[in-house]
Design a protein that fits this description.
It contains ten helices and eight strands. It is of the alpha/beta class. The strands form two sheets. The protein has a four-stranded parallel sheet with strand order 2-1-3-4, with helices on both faces.
């Protein structure tokens, strides 16, 4: 009997929650910091993909039934936004990067704790607008998240305190906000093998700048990173900025960079 009652009321339970949509799990993790039990989440993809991929019409219909689509304004996310809005004009769109000072139109803003405070504010304001009855609940979660963000910033500063790392190599612009906030100089390298004539001058530059780390996105060609590491005697640091848990990701990155 209890099982029958559960089956009858479960759809009503889901309907009472705010149906949110994100592009990938990291965004869900961040939004749920404030929404928690008051939201039911869906994701377009279970891992970050930079390129747009067509999804079945039936899936578009399912996803577009959400109340709010939260995203960071990445190009691929806007492509899905257009399709979803065409299916459901009432879908609320929240660009979590709104009001963040962008670096050269770079949108990987979650790598900077100060920018994340603005992201948290954008999420909080979206929920209290559509779910006023739970304003106090969202406010409490919002303030807790701000404390977590501040704590993350301070822990990274502490990890930097005894480190002599001030300059690193990188293959991408994923870490621009991190380097800007924590004053770490990033020198961008092309994703290519060093030829024999480049090795000597690049090695001298590396030693003069005291560069000891090479930062690259997990999933790219590891052999190129390994070649550069071997030729220049720098340590490879793999990082996935799109991994699911925001605070853990940043603290793990700082641990690897500054130890």
């Amino acid at each position: 009997m209890s099982k029958i009652i559960f089956l009858l009321f479960f759809p009503l339970f889901l309907f009472s929650k705010v149906q949110i949509l994100t592009y990938f799990p990291l965004e869900t993790h961040i939004v749920k910091k404030i929404a928690q039990k008051e939201a039911v989440s869906r994701e377009i993809t279970n891992r970050y993909l930079a390129e747009f991929r067509k999804i079945p019409f039936s899936e578009i219909s399912r996803l577009s039934n959400s109340k709010i689509y939260f995203h960071f304004g990445l190009d691929v996310e806007k492509q899905y936004e257009n399709i979803l809005k065409e299916k459901n004009p009432n879908l609320i769109i929240v660009d979590m990067s709104k009001d963040v000072d962008k670096i050269n139109n770079n949108l990987y803003i979650w790598m900077d704790p100060f920018s994340m405070r603005i992201v948290a504010k954008n999420i909080y304001e979206a929920f209290i607008e559509i779910d006023k009855d739970n304003k106090d609940f969202y406010k409490e979660n919002y303030e807790k998240f701000l404390d977590e963000i501040d704590d993350t910033f301070l822990k990274i500063k502490q990890k930097m305190a005894g480190s002599d790392v001030t300059t690193i190599y990188s293959f991408d612009d994923y870490w621009d906000y991190f380097s800007n906030r924590f004053r770490v100089n990033i020198i961008k390298k092309e994703k290519k093998y060093l030829n024999i004539t480049d090795v000597s001058t690049t090695l001298e530059f590396t030693q003069n700048k005291n560069i000891k780390k090479l930062l690259f996105y997990r999933g790219m060609d590891y052999n190129i990173a390994l070649s550069l590491s071997n030729n220049l005697n720098v340590k490879i640091i793999e990082d996935d900025i799109f991994a699911d848990k925001w605070q853990f990701n940043l603290l793990n990155l700082s641990q690897n960079l500054f130890k």
